[in-house]
Amino acid sequence: MPKTKASLLVIAATAVTVATLFLLPFTPKTAVRTAEVERGNLIRSTLMEGVVAYADEQPLVALTAGRVARVYVSQGQAVCAGDLLMSMDTSVQEQELAAVNRLLYEQETALAAFGQMGESALIAAQTALETRARQAELRTAIASSQIRAEADGVVGAVYVAEGAIAGEGNLLGMVHGTGLHVVAAGRAEELANVSQGAAAMVTSADGKALGAAVLGQAGAPEADGGTGQTMQPLSFLPMEDGAWAGAKAGDRVVVELVCEVLEDQALVPVGAVDSRDQVWFVDGGTATPVEIDLDLRNDAYVAVPQEWAGKRVVLLPESAALYPGCAVREARAR
């Protein structure tokens, strides 16, 4: 009897062992999609809304108050640097200048008669000096009333007609260059490391690629009264001939500006990061979560330590019931 019991125990133990060995290879494995951690450049960019505008715009401003005497140009007219565009009424200054010129002639004639010596000659010289100063003031006032083109361009708008009254500083018209640029603004903290010459891509409001651009100028940061954020105004110029074909002044566009390029990084797809900022690495058929830093990322990739290059990670880990050390297998493509 004892011998029979011993035999039964041996048989039972053998059966358990065989069952275990038989079932182990068939332990359920979670089907996952994976991707290899690759090396590449991490390009960090930011999107900004912008407006196409004419380059080199010159506002035509009335430096003195008065009546518009003549308008020599019309909208759409090409002009050259130095061309007279408008003039204010200077009839009063011109009449006074004529009288001052006559007076100065008389004073200089008298000064020549007095010679270089004596009190009369000194008084005449002082009077002539004052008259010359007034003559210079009148000539400057007349010249400032003539509004000329600062550079070659096209008259974009004329806001006044001959005979209109304009106040000092009033905008009378605009002259613009033939080239275009894009004016945009972004958050100053995101653009702290961006320098002149940075590359960008300009896209129309309906998603059509207009062409490459380069950062030309950056204005002084300004506080946005609505959001309280500090915004950085920027100006972008076409990077190549033919860019922005079909665009015109006033069009709204989207600018994707390259803020930083980190070379030779180990990159993980954004889709491999779960809600806990973890990436699940696959090694030997099991998955292990590792927490990562999301500071270095863009819309598509996240940079991870260099030693992780070549390993495989689980894509869309939230869609799989993963736990540390769980067995996984590559899902078949449908």
* Helical residues, percent: 10-25%
Total helices: the number is 3
Report, as a whole number of angstroms, the end-to-end distance.
Answer: 61 Å
**How many separate domains?**
3
CATH architecture title of the largest domain: Beta Barrel
Which percent band covers the strand fraction? 35-45%
Largest β sheet strand count, sense and barrel closure: 6 strands, antiparallel, barrel
**Shape field:** elongated
Unreliable residue stretches: 18-24
Widest beta sheet: strand line-up: 2-11-15-13-12-16
What does this protein structure show overall?
- The protein has 334 residues and is an alpha+beta fold.
- The protein folds into three domains: 28-42 and 264-330, conserved putative lor/sdh protein from methanococcus maripaludis s2 fold (Beta Barrel); 45-56 and 178-261, Beta Barrel (Elongation Factor Tu (Ef-tu), domain 3); 64-176, Beta Barrel (OB fold (Dihydrolipoamide Acetyltransferase, E2P)).
- The chain contains three helices and 21 strands.
- It has helices at 2-23, 91-114, 119-144, and strands at 30-36, 38-54, 58-61, 66-71, 78-79, 84-88, 146-148, 153-158, 165-166, 171-176, 180-187, 199-204, 209-218, 222-223, 230-238, 252-269, 278-283, 286-291, 301-304, 312-315, 326-330.
- The strands form four sheets. It has a six-stranded antiparallel β-barrel with strand order 2-11-15-13-12-16. It has a five-stranded mixed β-barrel with strand order 1-20-17-18-21.
- β17 and β18 (286-291) form a beta hairpin.
- It is elongated and about 155 Å long.
- The two termini are 61 Å apart.
- Residues 18-24 have low confidence and may be disordered.
